[in-house]
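Per reviewer request, we include the raw input and output of the structure prediction for the construct analysed in the revised manuscript.
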Amino acid sequence: KSGNIPNDSLIVYTTIITITFIALNKVLSPQYVIWVLPFVPLLRFRYASLLLAVFILTNLLFPLGFRLLLDFHPLSIVLLNFRNALLIILVIWMMVDFHPFDRLTKAT
């Protein structure tokens, strides 16, 4: 109502947009995960720890297991889908915690 956006909400929403792009993109690129790194120190510890798991899974897939992914090895496909599921879970979790309407009703 006052036109001010809390800093924590701005950081979380920017991170949500970036993570959604990574999770729904057709290309597996560790460079995309690097886009989230500047936000990690600003996030709550529980979000950052889940992102750490995503970073580890991404590094397992590329460069270590990229050949298996190209050969459609079942384990690499499962790891990729698990990584993307963690990203989607993180997005939903952050959206629930930072739902804008909750803040508006608490402010009034």
